[in-house]
């Protein structure tokens, strides 16, 4: 069965008011990397906010 029609899609973190003062930090992949990894947009957004929190708390 396909349940995807009934699943609620979460709002992007950037649309949450509690995150309005957080600036996400983008991942800095080397331009000449041996392997280029394509990330899902949702993963990239979450990782950016995680890195911002990690850098701020560190």
UniProtKB/TrEMBL annotation:
<dbReference type="GO" id="GO:0016740">
    <property type="term" value="F:transferase activity"/>
</dbReference>
<keyword id="KW-0808">Transferase</keyword>
<protein>
    <submittedName>
        <fullName>Transferase</fullName>
        <ecNumber>2.5.1.-</ecNumber>
    </submittedName>
</protein>
<feature type="region of interest" description="Disordered">
    <location>
        <begin position="1"/>
        <end position="20"/>
    </location>
</feature>
